[in-house]
C-alpha cells in the first residue's frame, strides 16, 4: 500500500533550522512530482515547495524562497525539505505529497496531489 512518512519535525527557536524527510513506498516514486505542504491551526493547508520527477525543477511559495530547499533522492524514495531562518509563522504540521505527472509543470494546488503523509509537527518559538 502507498505510504508517505514524514520525519524530522520538532521545536526550534526563531532563526534556527530543521530538515524534514519523507520516505515513500508502494508507488513508483520517480513517476511522481513531490511536494511539501503545511497546515497551521485554524488555517487551510498551503503549498510550500515542489520538485519534479528527476529533481531538475523546483517551485517555491514566495514566503519560503531563499529559506527553504526541496530535494529528492529517487534511489532512496525520499524527498527532503531543508528549512533555514525559521520564523514563528512557519509553525505548522508539514506534509509531503505525491502528484501524478500530467505535464505542464509543477503545481501548488493541493487538489492535484493524490497521496499524503501523516505530517510532522514543526514548532518555531520566538
Structural commentary:
This protein is mostly beta strands. The protein contains no helices and 11 strands. The strands form 2 sheets. Strands 2, 4, 5, 6, 9, 10 and 11 form a 7-stranded mixed sheet that branches. It has a 4-stranded antiparallel sheet with strand order 1-3-8-7, with no helix packed on it. The relative contact order is 0.32.
Key traits:
126 residues, globular, four-stranded antiparallel beta sheet, mainly beta, seven-stranded mixed beta sheet
Would you kindly provide a brief summary of this structure?
This protein has no helices and eleven strands. The protein is globular. With 126 residues, it is mainly β.
Average pLDDT taken over every residue = 96
Biggest pleated-sheet summary: 7 strands, mixed
Helical content band: under 10%
What is the string of helix and strand elements? EEEEEEEEEEE
Number-wise, the strands total 11
Shape: globular
Residue share in β-strands: over 45%
Uncertain residue segments: none
Radius of gyration: 13 Å
Helical segment count:
0
Helix/strand class: mainly beta
Distance between the termini: 40 Å
Please write out the topology:
Layout: E1 3-7, E2 10-13, E3 18-25, E4 32-39, E5 46-51, E6 58-60, E7 68-73, E8 78-83, E9 92-100, E10 115-116, E11 120-125
Parallel strand pairs: 2-11
Antiparallel strand pairs: 1-3, 3-8, 4-5, 4-9, 5-6, 7-8, 9-10, 9-11
Amino acid at each position: 500500500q502507498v505510504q508517505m512518512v514524514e520525519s524530522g519535525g520538532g521545536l526550534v527557536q526563531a532563526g534556527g533550522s530543521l530538515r524534514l524527510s519523507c520516505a515513500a513506498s508502494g508507488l513508483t516514486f520517480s513517476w511522481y512530482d513531490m511536494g511539501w505542504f503545511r497546515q497551521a491551526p485554524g488555517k487551510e493547508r498551503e503549498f510550500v515547495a515542489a520538485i519534479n520527477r528527476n529533481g531538475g525543477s523546483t517551485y517555491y511559495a514566495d514566503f519560503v524562497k531563499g529559506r527553504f530547499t526541496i530535494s529528492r533522492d529517487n534511489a532512496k524514495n525520499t524527498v527532503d525539505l531543508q528549512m533555514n531562518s525559521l520564523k514563528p509563522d512557519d509553525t505548522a504540521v508539514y506534509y509531503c505529497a505525491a502528484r501524478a505527472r500530467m505535464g505542464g509543470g509543477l503545481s501548488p494546488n493541493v487538489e492535484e496531489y493524490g497521496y499524503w503523509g501523516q505530517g510532522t509537527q514543526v514548532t518555531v518559538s520566538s
